[in-house]
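[Q] Does anyone have a clean structure-token version of this?
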Amino acid sequence: MNVVSPGMIFTPACNLICMAMTVSRGFQNMTPFGRLGGVDEVATALLFLASDESRFVAGEALFLDGGIMAV
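[A] Here you go.
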């Protein structure tokens, strides 16, 4: 079993939570990429794990957080 752990992803719900630009900028500044993730980036990772291309991937935690865990 694999697990996907997204960080702060820009969605309509995130937009409501991060209405104050300082909150959104705070999350963006925490990532080496300097931005929030997109739903398309999460979808791409999920599609990979659901495909035959990942048939030998097992027991992995895939962090989609723009590099926060690496810092």
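[Q] Thanks! Anything notable?
[A] Residues 39-50 form the longest helix (12 residues).
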